[in-house]
Amino acid sequence: MAKSLRVIVGTFFFQFWILFMILAGYMVYRLIVYREAWNVILFIVTMILQVNYVKSELFIKFQLWFKMMEWFDKREIVEVEKPKKSNSMFCFHPHGIYSMGMVHNLYTKNTFFENLIVLSSRFALSIPFSGLLLTLFGLQGVHPENLSKLLKKGSNVGIMVGGFEEATLTKYGENRVYIKERKGFIKYALRYGTTIYPVFTFGENNMFYTYNGFQSLRLWLNKFKLIGTIYWSRFLTVPEPHTDMITVCGKGIELPKIENPAKEEIDKYHEIYIKGLKELYDTYAPKYAPKVPLQIF
Question: Which residues form the domain of 60?
Answer without folding.
Answer: 5-296
